[in-house]
Amino acid sequence: MEDTFRFANPHYLYLLLLVPLLALLFLTFFRSKKRSLQSFGKPTLILHLMPMVSARRTAVKTSLLLAAFVLQVIVLAGPQFGSKLETVKRKGIELMIALDVSNSMNAPDLKPSRLEMAKMAVARLVDQLGNDRIGLVVFAGQAYVQLPITTDYASAKMFLSSVSTDMVPTQGTAIGQAIDMCVNSFSPVEDVNRAILLITDGENHEDDAVRAAAAAAERGIRVYTVGMGTVKGSPIPLAAGSKSNFIKDRDGNVVITKINEDALMQIAAAGDGAYVQGNNIRSGINNLLSELNHLEKKEFETKVYSEYNNRFQYVEALVLLLLLADLLLLERKNKRLRGIDIFRRSVRETKDYFIEPK
């Protein structure tokens, strides 16, 4: 298996966007310095008065600092190599989460909103999973696979954080389609216990969700439902977080969305699962984990990179060498080495700023 390269913290690479800005700042400084010298008289005469000044050395020192900055950013990003792909055996279940992202999930009867509380509940659930596989389907009027079944919990939380009610253009609550998509998203591995976790307010579901749950149960897949919302209900903001503009019906009346617990209980019963209230994250997740723990964890194989070895040490060594070279290289000429121009033709651009005496 060939080595696979990755960055542990790739977001630090955005700092490289500062390199052109830093180069521009240095260039501006050099030009300002040149203009200041010219204000005292002719450059050739002034440089005869400053025989030890070396513009080339200044340019080289600047280049060393910029190179050190680039390499230090790479160090922060954490270059790694994974050299081993192993097939490991784990005991667990496969869990597909179907998350409702219809507009009614923006309702603030659960603070800060039904959807945000649902995302916090899923994140807490992921933190407490062990060797289980997990996948994510989002749905409103249509259903989409957001995350295929995986054991990568970090990726699951990353995809979860990006979920919003804007990601599905077709409004509605296609619960049955979401269940069918979850069923088709499980791995082809046999003899593994599977479950679907349906998180929704259950309002205005448009298809035969009970039939879809029953079909899943016939294939040995249990369907659990988590109800988000209150019986009293709440207006639906036109935009997430809005406190004044709400969705209205054709008659101009503000629409009130309420949780449909009866529908969610029927779906859970047909899916041989259970209904859990999601109003309280802690108790809801504890109840859900208790239900999932009733499923026997079966052994399955999965391919994972066994290790990623850090390689930042070599880059850091180059950074230290560049900084050391910058420290030892003086801006003025060396008296003993004045006759030896080791920088000749290396930085021709600096002649635009200073004219050195022959």
Describe this structure in words.
The chain is an alpha/beta fold and 358 residues long. It has two domains: 4-78 and 311-352, no CATH class; 90-301, von Willebrand factor, type A domain (Rossmann fold, 3-Layer(aba) Sandwich). The protein contains ten helices and eleven strands. The strands form three sheets. It has a six-stranded mixed beta sheet with strand order 5-4-3-6-7-10, sandwiched between helices. A hairpin with a 3-residue loop joins strand 4 (133-139) and strand 5. The two termini are 60 Å apart.
Keywords for this entry:
358 residues; alpha/beta; Rossmann fold; 2 domains; six-stranded mixed sheet; three-stranded antiparallel sheet; 10 helices
Radius of gyration of CA atoms, rounded to a whole number? 32 Å
| Name of the CATH homologous superfamily of the largest domain | von Willebrand factor, type A domain
Order of helices and strands: EHHHEEHEEHHEHEEEHEHEH
The end-to-end distance, rounded to whole angstroms, is 60 Å
Number of helices: 10
- Overall domain count: 2
Helix share, percent: 25-40%
Relative strand content: 15-25%
C-alpha geometry: elongated
Mean pLDDT: 80
The number of distinct β-strands equals: 11
What class would the helix/strand composition place it in?
A: alpha/beta
What's the short version?
This protein is α/β, with parallel strands linked by helices. It contains ten helices and eleven strands.
Topology:
Elements: E1 4-7, H1 18-38, H2 43-49, H3 55-77, E2 79-92, E3 94-100, H4 114-127, E4 133-139, E5 143-150, H5 153-161, H6 175-185, E6 194-200, H7 209-218, E7 221-227, E8 234-235, E9 256-257, H8 261-270, E10 275-277, H9 281-292, E11 298-310, H10 312-328
Parallel strand pairs: 3-4, 3-6, 6-7, 7-10
Antiparallel strand pairs: 1-2, 2-11, 4-5, 8-9
Helix pairs in contact: 1-3, 3-10, 4-5, 4-9, 6-7, 7-8
